[in-house]
Structures are given as structure tokens and as C-alpha cells.
Amino acid sequence: MNTDSPVFFVVALQSEATPLIEHYKLRATGHSAFRCFSNGNVSLIVSGIGRINTAAATAALLHSAPSLQRAVCLNTGIAGHHSLPLGQAFVAHRISDAQSGTDWYPQMTFNPACASSALRTVDAPTSDYPQDSGVDMEASAFYPVAIRYLPGELTQVVKVVSDTPEEALDNLDKARVSALMQEGLPAIHDCVTQLQKLAAGVADNTETSRALAEYCKHWHLTQAQKNNLSRLLERHLALFCAIPEAGLFAQEKTAKGMLRALNQRIASRGLHLS
After folding, report:
1. Cα–Cα nearest to 14, from 38, 42, 35, 39
2. Could you tell me if 174 and 197 are in contact, meaning their C-beta atoms sit under 8 angstroms apart?
């Protein structure tokens, strides 16, 4: 696996995570309120079910990353589907939030080996399967958070069909969930590999490096503050398509004040990164 392209997984259930943990040889880490696993290059967080948990876990995972350059992020797990068979993996080409009616269209600049499908996120388990669509409880929370940290084409939702109109959700248990995820694992891994190849084509962000050096001329920063500043500059670039000049924060006399001001500027887009 290309160690220059970190991979981040967000999954809801431990039973969904187990095949991924075993495949990528991940070990538990103790640095989050959530259950987290990593091998140094691939990281996974178990969010728990539902949109609130998923949004919080996604932000926690990506905000704590040492670097997001060339990183890819996937939300994966089980989902119901109107027409695809059990164990079939699919990539979401449209994500719809049932509560708000908001739609997102992930950029698919790669050719997945599996199917693609619309996906609807609901707040509770349901036996209502929209025509030719999947149903889950996480994707509409994961995607808008993740794309504030990473490019849209490197942020994807890959689900494995667990229930259909003919195969009831009631038949699922932990062992069955893990078995279905194991069945879909080759397609998930193929998506990871293709996304890593796509990420490897992204040029090194020398703009961030130059900006970091310029900021260091104005403020004395500890190594931890440099790491934080680098992450904030990367996220500012992703959100605003530009890196702010150091002079914009000239009124701040301390590095702590500058970082706070930069963070507030990013938070104006609706996501606090402190």
C-alpha cells in the first residue's frame, strides 16, 4: 500500500469494522472518545449509529490526523437496498438526507469495480426502500464534514447491502454483519487502491510549506503549534482556494492569538477546528 496516501475509515459498528481491522492489520489506539484503530497509514474510527455520532467521529478522526496531504477517507458499512443483492458493495453517487431533503453528489473520478447507487440517509431503521436506492443512517452526516477536510474526489461512501425488500433487516446479527462486510471487502479495498492512486497524482502542496515558513518569521511557534498551523492552512486552502497572508493577522502579538484568529476565520464556514 502506498504509505504516501493515508486512508481513513469511518464505520458505525464494531461488527462492520472487524473485517477491515483484520484485513489492514490495525491495532487499537487510545487517543479518542471513540474506538480507534490504526497501522500508521490506515486509520479507522467506530462512530456508533446515527448522524450525530457519525459527524462527531468524522471530525475527530480527521482533525487529529498529523497530515491530510494526499489522504483519502471512506464511510463504509452495511445498508439496505431496493434492488441490489445481499453482499453487493456499491459506491454512493448521490447522498440524500431524508430529514432535510439535502442532496450531495460525490465526485467519482475513478472507476469502481462495484456498482454505484443513490443512497438515502434516515434517522431510524426502515423497511421502506426507495426505488433503485440504498438506505443507511450515516452517509449524509459523514460526507459534508469530511469534504471540509479533504477534496471531494478523495472522499467516498462505499456500502455493502445487508437487507432488501425480500430479506428483512430483522435477520441481521453481529456475525451476519461481519460476514456481509467480508463479502464486500474486495470491492472496498479496490476503491481504496484506486483512490490512493488518484491521491498519488496530487502535487505536493509547496504553497502550504512556503506559507508556514512566512508565518514562522512573524511568530515564534512550538512544534505542536507548527503542526496545528499547517493543518489549519491546508483546510483554509481547501475551503477558500487560497492561503491567507500572514499579515492578515499582524495585530495578533502571540502565536496562540494568531492560531485562534485563523481558526475563527475557518469556523466562519461552519466548522470549528480547535
Report:
1. 35
2. no
Q: Compute the distance between CA of residue 87 and CA of residue 152 in angstroms, rounded to an integer.
A: 26
Q: Please write the tens of the pLDDT for every residue from 208-223.
A: 778 888 999 999 988 7
* CA dist., res. 267 & res. 199, Å (int): 26
**Could you list the residue range(s) of the whole structural domain that residue 212 is in?**
206-267
Cell, residue 270:
461552519
Q: Which residue has the cell 443512517?
A: 137
Are 26 and 142 members of one domain? yes
Q: Is residue 2 part of a domain?
A: no
Give 156-173 pLDDT, tens digit per residue.
999 999 999 998 888 889
Could you report the per-residue pLDDT of 114-123, keeping only the tens digit for each? 999 999 999 9
Which amino acid is residue 24, in one-letter code? Y
Amino acid of residue 166:
E
Of 41, 21, 51, nearest in space to 182 by CA: 21
The total of structural domains in the chain comes to 2
Classify strands 133-136 and 72-81 as parallel, antiparallel or unpaired: antiparallel
